[in-house]
Amino acid sequence: MDFVSSIVLGLQAAASIDNLIYCLLGVTLGTAIGVLPGVGPIITISLLLPLTFGLPPEGSVILLAGIYYGAAYGGSTTSILLNLPGEASSAVTCLDGYQMARQGRAGSALAIAALGSFFAGTVGTLLIAMAAPAMASVAAKFGSAEYAALVFCALIATASIAKGGFIKGIGSAVLGILLGLAGADVASGVFRFTFGIAELRDGIDFAVLAVGLFAVSEIITTIGSTATPELVTSKVGRLWPNRDEFRQAWPAVLRGTALGSFLGMLPGAGLAMSSFSAYMIEKSISKTPAKFGAGAVEGVAAPESANNAASQTAFIPTLMLGVPGSPVMALFLGALLIQGVNPGPSMITNNPQLFWGLVGSMWIGNLMLVILNLPLIGLWVKLLTVPYHWLYLFVLAFACVGVYSIGFSSLQIMTLVIFGTVGYLLKRADCSLAMFILGFVLGPMFEENFRRALSLSRGDPMTFINRPISLTFVILGIAVLLAATTSFVRRGAQEAAD
Amino acid sequence: MKFNADHAVGILFAGVGGIAVYLGTDYGFGSLSEMGPGALPVLLGAVLFIFGAALLVQATVASEGAASIAMIPPQEIRPFLAVLAALLAFSLLIERVGLLPSVAALIGIGWLADKRGRLKELPVLALFILAIIIAIFYVGLGIPFYLFGWSI
User: How many other C-beta atoms lie within 10 A of the C-beta of residue B109?
Assistant: First the structure.
C-alpha cells in the first residue's frame, strides 16, 4: 500500500463520526488536565483504562492518544498566563511565556505556543506515517535475541536518567518485571508468585496496578503538598503575533520540532527533557541571550514545539517495536494489549485501519487543539478555580468505581489499596514508579524472547553477541550500565572520603 | 549510622530478590537451552539482591553522621491514612449495600484527607460527584451496577 492511500485510509478512518467524537473527547480531556495542576496524563490514562475495555480498539487508542498529546498542548496555557505549569513538560515555558504575558503579550505567547505546537504536531504525525513503516520493516527482521537485547538496552537507558538514580531505577524495573511474571507461566503452566491465591493465577490486572501506583499515590502526595495557588490572571490581549515575533519564532519552531522529534523516539527522554533541552539550545545559540527570561519569543516557541513533536514521535517505538520509552507510553501499550492488539512490526499489515486511523486522528486532533486552545482560552483558565480538595474526591471515586467495574470483585479494590500503599512508599523512597510500570509491561515480552532465543541457540548465550543488531543493543546497554555504576561507586567513595 | 530511605529500599530489593531466587529454584530453573519457569525469577532475583546489597552499602557509607530522613513527611500521614481507609471502606461496602452508599462512604472518609475541605460543602460536593459517577458509568456506559443493596 503506498503512502498516499495509507494517509487517505487513515483520515477516512479517523473522520468517522464515532472516532471524531473519541478524538474530540480525548483532546478536550487532555487540554483540561494539562491546565489542572495535580492531574496529569498518567493519572487520567490510568483512570480511563478500565473504561476502555468496552470501547472498540480504534476508539480507545484515539481517545488515549488524544489525552496524551492534548496535555502536552494544554500545559502551556497556565504556564503563560499564571506562571503555573500544568505539566512538567511546560515548566520551562513559564520562564519566558509568563514574562511575555506580564508585558501584555499573553495573546502572542499563546498563539505562538499553539501554532508552534500545531506545526510540530503535523511534522510529528508525518514522521510517524513515514518512519513507522520503515522501522517496521527493520523490526520485522528482529528475532527473539534482538527483542530481548532491545528490552535490556531500553530499560538500562531509561534507568540511567530515572528519578532517584540508576540503582533504584533499575531495581524498580526488576521489581516490576518480577510482578509481571506473577500468574501462570505460558510455557509450562506453573503458577508463579501466586502464594496459593486463586485470583492471582491470571496475573496482576494492569489497570488496577496503574491506578494504584499512579492515581492513589499522586492524590496522597498532592494533598500533602499543594499550597493554594494564587490566581493572577493577566489579560490575554491581541491573539496574534506581530511580524517581528513571527520572524523570531519560526526558526525556533523548526529547531524545537527537529530536536523534539528526535528525543521523543529515545527511551526515557520524554517531553520534559525535550522542552528543556530545546530551551537551552535556543538560549545558547541566541545572539541576545540576555533576552531569555525576560520574554523571549524563542523561549516559548522552541520548547512548546519540542514537547509536542516528542509526544507524537514517542508513538513510533511503542507501536512498531512494542517497547515504550515512557510511563505514559507503557500505559498506552497496556491499553493496546487489553484490546487484544499486539503492537509490533506486523501491526501495520494486520491492523491498517487501527494504525493509520490513529495517525490520521493525531493530525485532526492537533487541528482541534488549535481551535480549543485559542478562542476558548478563557474557559480553561476558569477550570483553575476548581480547588484540588474537590477534585481529588472525584478522582478517587472515579478510580474506585472504574476499577470495580472491571471484574465486579471487591478483591480488586483490596489490590488497589495494596498497590496504592506500595506506590506511595516507593515514591517517597525516591524509587521511580515509571521504571516499575515499564518493567511490568516489558517483563513478559522479555522473558518470552529471552527463553526462546536461548532455546533456539541450544543454550548458547553467544546468540546475543553473534548477531549484529543484538550486539549493538547489548554494547549500548553495557556501556550505559558501566557509566552509571561507576558514577554510583565514585559517589559512594567520595562520600566515604569526606 | 542513621537509617534512611535508601536503607529501606536496599532491604526491599535484597529481600524480594532473595525470595525470588528461593521460589525460582522451587519452580525449576531448567537448563540454558530449556529454561524452566523459575529461570527468570532466579536470574532477576539475583540481580535485584546484588543491587539491594550495593544500595545498602552505599547508603550506610553516605549516611555516616547524616541525620536520618523521615520517609513519610508529617503532612502526608493524614491523607495517606484517609485515602486508604476510604478505599478499604468502599471494598467492604460495595457488595453489601450497593454503589451509591459505598461511593458516599468513600467520599465521606476521603474528605478527611484534606484539612482544607469545609463541612458545609461536603453534601453538595458528594451529590455532585455521585451524579457524575452515575451519569458516566451507569447511564453512559450502561454498566449494570446495583445502585442500592446487593441483590434486590
Answer: 20
Domain boundary, last residue among B62, B84, B108: B62
Are B35 and B10 part of one and the same domain? yes
Whether residue B11 is found in the same domain as residue B57: yes
Chain A residue with minimum CA distance to B104: A397
Same-domain check for residues B20 and B42: yes
Q: What is the ipTM of this complex?
A: 0.90
Tell how strand A191-192 and strand A183-184 pair up.
Answer: antiparallel
Kindly provide the b/e burial profile for residues A400-435, where b requires at least 16 CB atoms within 10 angstroms of the residue's own CB.
bbbbbbbbebbebbbbbbebbbbbbbbbbbbbbbbb
Structural domain that includes position B11:
5-62
- Closest-CA residue to B46 (of B25, B70, B67, B76): B25
Judged by CB atoms closer than 8 Å, whether chains meet at B79 and A171 is answered as no
Q: Is residue B17 part of a domain?
A: yes
Helix (H) or strand (E) holding A464: helix A463-466
Question: CB contact, 8 Å: B94 with chain A?
Answer: yes
Shortest alpha-carbon distance between residue A242 and chain B (Å): 44
Mean pLDDT of A371-392: 80
Contact call for A413 and B117, based on CB within 8 A: no
B103 → chain A, closest CA residue: A397
Q: Does B66 touch chain A (CB under 8 A)?
A: no
Q: How many structural domains are present in chain B?
A: 2
Distance to chain B for A27, nearest Cα, Å: 18
Q: Are A380 and A77 in contact (CB under 8 A)?
A: yes
Q: Higher model confidence: residue B50 or residue A240?
A: B50
A33-42, A160-169, A292-301: range with lowest mean pLDDT: A33-42
Mutate to test the interface with B, among A211, A451, A489 (most CBs of B within 10 A): A451
B152 part of a folded domain: no
The alpha-carbon gap from B100 to the nearest alpha carbon of chain A, in Å, equals 10
B36-77 pLDDT per residue, tens:
888 899 999 999 999 999 988 888 887 665 555 557 788 888
Give the separation between CA B41 and CA A177, rounded to whole angstroms: 9
Give phi and psi for A184, each to the nearest 5. -75, 135
Give the chain A residue nearest B4 (alpha carbons): A429
**Mean pLDDT along residues A419-442:** 90
Nearest Cα of chain A lies from the Cα of B102 at a distance, in angstroms, of: 10
Residues B55 and B87 in one domain: no
Contact list in A for residue B40 (CB cut-off 8 A) is: 177, 181, 447, 450-451
Note the pLDDT of residue B121. Answer: 86
The answer to whether A393 contacts B73, with C-beta atoms less than 8 Å apart, is no
Residue B107 lies in a domain: yes
Interchain proximity A400–B87, CB inside 8 Å = yes
> Based on the domain organization, do B51 and B20 belong to the same domain?
yes
Q: What is the model's pLDDT at position A73?
A: 78
Give the type of residue at A397.
Answer: A
Q: Which residue of A has its CA nearest to B40?
A: A447
Which of B19, B35, B62 marks a domain boundary? B62
Cβ–Cβ under 8 Å, residues A111 and A374: yes
Mean pLDDT of chain B: 86
Q: How far is B96 from chain A (nearest CA, A)?
A: 10
Question: Phi and psi dihedrals of A297, rounded to 5?
Answer: -60, -40
Which residues of chain A does B20 touch, with a Cβ-Cβ cutoff of 8 Å?
A: 178
